[in-house]
UniProtKB/TrEMBL annotation:
GO annotation, cellular component aspect: cytoplasm
Domain ATP-grasp: 117-325
UniProt GO molecular function: ATP binding; D-alanine-D-alanine ligase activity; metal ion binding
Keyword Cell wall biogenesis/degradation on entry: yes
Location(s), subcellular: Cytoplasm
Organism the protein comes from: Caldicoprobacter faecalis
InterPro entries given in the database record: ATP-grasp, ATP_grasp_subdomain_1, D-Ala_lig_Van_CS, Dala_Dala_lig_C, PreATP-grasp_dom_sf
A Pfam match: Dala_Dala_lig_C
Name of the protein described by the UniProt record: D-alanine-D-alanine ligase
Amino acid sequence: MESEASSYRVGLAFNLKKGIKGIVEDIEAEYDSIDTVMAIKNALESIGCRVELMEADHSFLDKLRQVHVDIVFNIAEGLGGRGREAHIPAILSFLGIPFTGSDETTLCIALDKALTKRLLTSFRILTPKHQLISHEGERIRRDLRFPLIVKPNAEGSSKGISSMAVVDNMEQLKSLLERNFRLYGQPMLIEEFIPGREFTVGVIGNGHETRVFSPMEIVYKEDRDGKNIYSFEVKKDYKKYVEYVCPPDLSPELQKKLMDIAGKIYRVLQCRDFARMDFRMSKDNRFYFIEINPLPGLAPGYSDYPMIAEFCGVEYNTVIKMILNSALKRYGMAPVM
C-alpha cells in the first residue's frame, strides 16, 4: 500500500502570472507565481510523488493526452468568464481523472458572490444586506444603508476591491459603479458595509476528518474611521498595513460559534479537501459571512490559507500532503504516508 502511494504521478495544474499589463493593476491577481508552483511541486516530491507541471492554458488537453497522471493537484483559476474556476475540474471530471479540491459545481457557485449569498441565506447563514447590479443606471434598493462596499461579483483575490471600495453616499456609489463597469465588465455586488473586526477561517479535509482551523484575525495597523477593508493594495503589501492574529482574542464561545458557521458553510456548499472563508463581526458580536474561496491561494509566506495552517501548527509541506491525501481518500486511493 505504501509503495503504491509513494509512486503517484501527480499533474500540477496552474495558471501562471505572465507580467501582462492591463487597464487595471490587478489583472493577474488570481494567478500564481512560478515560486508558488515550485513550492507545491517540491512539497509533493518530498513525499515521493512524481510531478508533471501542467499549465492550464489552451494546450492543457494535449498535456493530459501526452502524460498519464494518477491525480491532478489543481490550483488553476481558469482563463476567463464567470465559470472559469470550473474549467479544469470540469475537464477532469469529464475524463474521469481524479483531482484535488472542490468540483466544478461548487467552484462555479462560490465564484458568484451573489449566488453564494442567496444559497447560504436559505440555510440561515447571516450575510450583509446586498444587491446585484447588472448594468449602469439600475435602480438601487431603498432599504440599503450607507456605507456600502462595491465589488465585482465574480472575482477573487480582492480583485476590483480598491481602497475606494467603501462609499458613503449615492454620488460616490454611482461614480464607483461607472468606473468598475468600465474596468471589469461584469455585474457588481453592493452590500452594506459591516464595521467591526475581520476574520478568515480555513478548513481542510472531508467528512468526519474535516478540520476547521482556528480563525485568523486581520488587524489593521491604521484605523480608517472603522472602514478598513482587505483590499488588493493591502494584500499586495500586507506587512505594511496589517497584522495577523491566530488564535484571535475571542471568548471560547464566540470562537466556537465562528468555527461552527465555517464548518456549516463548507458542508452546505459541498466543498472538498480545503477552502477558506471570510467574515466580519459586528459590534454586537454577530458574524456576517462575506465570501468563500474553495480554491484558496497556497503561496508560502504570503497567502492566508498556509498562514492560518502554520499558526495552527501545520507547516507548509504537511498542508500540501493533507490536501492531496484528502483527495486520494475520496477516490478510494491509498494516501501518501
